[in-house]
């Protein structure tokens, strides 16, 4: 043996003699890696190969005297490892890469090298590495642009654009005027606290790894599981969809009321019908706007993104104009006079000629509205006669002190006139007929209603997390940008509440549509330099927000559909070739149309508030659950969070839901609950490492530790089943009805473990074990049995069952009852292992103090689709077994199959027993057990042993002895053959003999003449004399007595219960001496002969039923 060391260095393949011409396939391979540099042993006794010949040539050309050191050079495009390595097993050359890791080469397929893992992480862009569901979507070799967006452009500004919206411009002044400054500050503060606490929780989740597309849906689903994720994801989708409808309705309101009122299609002849006509206009124009926006989104999102910056600029300019106008109003307030009749506000259209007076040389237009004619002496309205017409400034200005009047609330009912309490007014109620002459409240207002209407103006905090893939450092940008955006918007809202209350007259603030200020947008009257700045800016900002919602909602639905957790949504996961969600956009447009048909901004806002609040609630819940569970993977970079903050945020969200609209809250919860249950029962199974699973594990651990504190009380006893099933050669369950029967016992709601044993070696039978477990799983799903399945591989089935009985369960959740089938045709079976395994299992369950249920003739038991319409369940209570015989019929009758069956209990009285008293006592006992059953005591008189009993015992013992002799002779033959085999043939082979196994088979079949005579002489049972000796035996006395009992009991049971649907019977224990096992099986056969369905019951030694409460 000699050691040859090869050193391979990169060079050109042509420089190596003999390779460029003779080995073109080697030089054509591409590899840029040095394959090896270690010592290889070459056996000189082996015949020279082509590789060794090439080696000699190569060594000779370099002028080396001996081939113990060769410098072989190759190009980076060539690979020479195959030349020098004896690859006899056909392993690819790549398996020899990096000999320093040869010990781990078999694990490379499932466990990548650290260098490979790090290179993948270094090239990371948007998808979470190591997460299977995202790696599947990653195309190999696809080039992506590296994210470059920072905190300001990537998170802060998108959040501002999504948070500032239609409510700020159209409803915030009305909220301030109605609720008062103090309560309005409270409303804004509560809503902003809700979003701030949610943002803290969201920042913790978003910085605990990478959040791909889907934003809040992804965070909730991966934190709380697919059921919660799907339910809340769809709620968030519906909220975003209704938000688009709300923004479109806001844009139409601005268009038709403040920009081009002449564009209204529907007009009312009387002013009472103006509201209905306006709603119809909103529906028509809203549908047109929705169609145009959906078309724009369908054509290309890039156009929406380009317009986003313009819309954001409109928002910022509009807000700045409000602040500027408020400051200017301190010095020179704008002129917007408000006409008042007494303390009641008059709309501008009631003036007609613009004169806010009763008379100007002649009567004015106002006079004609309240009087029966233009004459000065005409009869007029009483309130008009006794009240003065005055003008007050609509914008008194920042320094006017009007805030003292606007501090307090002024909630109104629908139809009430907007009044200024500080002005004098006669105490005369206004008549409904003159309602159109005043500015009145269009809806009944309350604190809760205003909360629901205002809350959509603080939503939109998820915009940053939705763009995590475009951020340069998402872990830093999302928390900083989102929290700064919320602080900014909260400051803007709170300051605007104070400015509105300090600058604008109260009656103008409560005038929702600006009728008292010449039909101007109320917030526009404060803006500088012109109201049109706010009007145009708010119109474009609402259009932009609607486009953003129509863009985001279909993508959210597509993300849910692609997760495949809701089967009927799969179609919405498809789209155009570039991935645009066409079908999802169509559904979004249809749902948004429903919101537009509502046509009222004040009615749509609470709907989307519910959905957003539910989403935020579960974001807080996800953070709190993850924090409290302290899962090892919970390591957020954002550290300024606490579970108490998350619970506080969750509480505020829940409170706001019911404060704003309790019936909408219930509807939203019912929708989410229905989606949750649908996903739970029909959705695809997903394992996302969610927090609810972690919570279940913690709860299970806690419960198991509590159960360990002591044995269960008799009142808490319920059958914890271990069902032993047998599989055939094709891995099919031989007796599936056994599991059906177990499912019918599940009224006790206990544990169920379905187990089977596969003979063999676990190292070689792992695949079979997995296949067997899948078979059990599918059968359990078919029978709707909730439980666990277990498969054990053992050399002998008996040992496997022993291991399963000993090791099944965990802590206090261990099986207390074993269900196993009866060994069919055990008499005809040549292999005694089936019934020996059965008896061994009976002994093991007795030793383990477990109850045992053995259904006999299980194939005749009813399925779950075959209910028994009549009949009885008969219980033969022969010995006390802890009450199992009483409890089992009760549990069975809870199931629909046995529900209509009556219950009869039989017990056996001996000669010395008082059968009448026994019947009374048994009836009393059942009364205290609260079990309804007929009671009967069967008297069994002492009688002589019949000839039939004697003959049956004799046949049993003869059969037993015959089988024993046959098994002994067979084992003797096998033993002698194995001892004699080496003397017949001796094989010596130092090398591998391919025919060795077949040779051994021939040896085992080889007999010598002398050996055959010897075995025949020793086997007396093979002679006729041996059979005659067997026939002359006398049966054992104890066997005769046992057979007598079995025969007599069987006669009584068949006589009384031959037509029963099911017979429950005490199962006698096996004999202590294993030699009588065959007789034990015969006794059981005789005991149950002639009965269609029998359940043999053996108690576990503990009481399972009690008369006490």
Automatic annotation (TrEMBL):
InterPro entries listed in its UniProt record: AA-permease/SLC12A_dom, KCL_cotranspt, SLC12_C, SLC12A_fam
Keywords associated with the record: Cell membrane, Chloride, Glycoprotein, Ion transport, Membrane, Phosphoprotein, Potassium, Potassium transport, Symport, Transmembrane, Transmembrane helix, Transport
Cell compartment(s), UniProt: Cell membrane
Gene Ontology biological-process entries: cell volume homeostasis; chemical synaptic transmission; chloride ion homeostasis; potassium ion homeostasis; potassium ion import across plasma membrane
Residue ranges constituting the SLC12A transporter C-terminal domain according to the UniProt record: 736-853, 869-1109
Compositional bias per record (Basic and acidic residues), positions renumbered to this chain: 66-78
Every Amino acid permease/ SLC12A domain range: 155-331, 444-722
Start-end of Low complexity biased regions: 20-35, 49-64
Any one GO molecular-function label of the UniProt entry: potassium:chloride symporter activity
Catalytic activity: K(+)(in) + chloride(in) = K(+)(out) + chloride(out)
Sequence similarity: Belongs to the SLC12A transporter family. K/Cl co-transporter subfamily.
Name of the featured protein: Solute carrier family 12 member 6
Organism: Scleropages formosus
